Amino acid sequence: MAFDSDYIWLEGEFVPFRDAKLHFLTSSLHYGTGIFEGIRSYETPDGPSVFRLKDHLKRLLNSAQILGLGEIPYTFEELYDATIKLVELNNMVECYIRPLIYIKEGGWNLSTIKIKIDAGIAVWKWTNYLGDEALAKGIRANISSFPRHHPNIMMTKGKTAGNYVNSVLAKSESMRGGFDEAIMLDPNGYVSECTGENIFVVRDGVIYTPPRNSVLEGITRDTVITIAKDKNYEVVEEIISRDQLYISDEVFVTGTAAEVIALSEIDHRKIGSGATGLVCADLQKSYSDVIHGKNKKYSDWLDYVNNTSHSEVRLTEAKAV
Ligand SMILES: Cc1ncc(COP(=O)(O)O)c(C=O)c1O
pLDDT of 31-84, one tens digit each? Predict the structure, then answer.
């Protein structure tokens, strides 16, 4: 994956890519106390559009609140504007957007007391996260030997950098074992989520997903639930056990990076047809239409890049969030 772009927004300014540097003694680098978001921009008939930008920025600020970082030196509107302008400045269309808020000064006494916070945003061209064949064929997963964090240990509603050591351990183990993705169980032994995706199960036409108590409140999860309900699928949030995965008609995962991808095999057991099932394929198509601006019903989720009037309207709306 190539990460380069012309500009990165760093500490309030658009700086050339090569100049976007932080000091080695940035405590967030040592203790994992940064917070971040993963956002995507897509091509639409009306130009590039960032998908659910306001919801991602809201979650970013919620992550800061969870970690207790105190006041962020940028307003919601400034972060919104910087994101839109950065995509435009880099002439990006389909790209990934990565805001990061970090402790710039202090934090060495393992606290968030008397710290100075700053932030940056990078964008890079996007390629398929789980591979080109994943959409139709699905991917292979296993249950990780690493459980997902207990919410009282790592605060799973926040996208805190340090939380992702858990994901790195699980995904590395799975990939070394020949799988594409890891499914993590919660501390009680029930299915929670994957390393960067929420998980769904289909049985007899009903869609099930674990409740929000211990998982990241995925924005794609919410998008897919909304679309599915609008399409008259029954969606149930309930505790799911490992063996329920094995006997499902379909299992699929959702995330900004992965989008909507079927799990064709779990722990060497074929799931359903062993490829993308009918419900997953239906939701993949609907999700693709929504993010690419082909379904006007969900146009409120699109924040256009090259349309100043649009962006001003969105900024006014954002103030109300
Ligand atoms: C642990 C975890 N679960 C779920 C998700 C999916 O969230 P979203 O759909 O907002 O990208 C992510 C990705 O951010 C994640 O890191």
Answer: 999 999 999 999 999 999 999 999 999 999 999 999 999 999 999 999 999 999
221 lines ligand 1 (CB under 6 A): yes
Catalytic residue at 171?
Answer: no
Report the nearest atom of ligand 1 relative to the CA of 167: 1
Q: Are residues 287 and 156 in the same domain?
A: yes
Determine which residue's CA is closest to atom 5 belonging to ligand 1: 197
Indicate which residue's Cα is closest to atom 12 of ligand 1.
Answer: 196
Are 65 and 147 members of one domain? no
CATH code of the domain containing 59: 3.30.470.10
Q: Domain with 260 in it: what CATH number?
A: 3.20.10.10
- Is residue 84 in a domain? yes
Percent of the chain with pLDDT over 70: 95
Is 209's C-beta closer than 6 angstroms to any atom of ligand 1? no
78 and 219 belong to one structural domain: no
**Rounded to two decimals, what is the model's pTM?**
0.94
d(CA 318, CA 321): 5
Going by C-alpha positions, the residue among 166, 162, 161 that lies closest to residue 149 is 166
Based on the domain organization, do 213 and 138 belong to the same domain? yes
Helix extents (H) in the chain: 27-31, 53-67, 76-89, 134-137, 151-154, 164-176, 219-230, 242-246, 278-291, 308-319
Q: Do 140 and 117 share a structural domain? A: no
Q: Whose CA is nearest to atom 4 of ligand 1?
A: 197
Using the mean position of ligand 1's atoms as its centre, give its distance from the Cα of residue 106 in Å: 29
Does 124 score more than 90 pLDDT? yes
Whether the CB of 37 sits within 6 Å of ligand 1: no
Tell how far the Cα of 4 is from the centroid of ligand 1, in angstroms.
23
> Residue 46's domain spans which residues?
7-127
The 10 Å CB-count burial string (b at 16+, else e) for 206-225 is: ebbbbeeebbbebbbbebbb
Domains of the chain: total: 2
**Does 315 fall in a domain?**
no
Instruction: Decide if 38 is inside a domain.
Output: yes
Residue 182, strand partner residues: 142
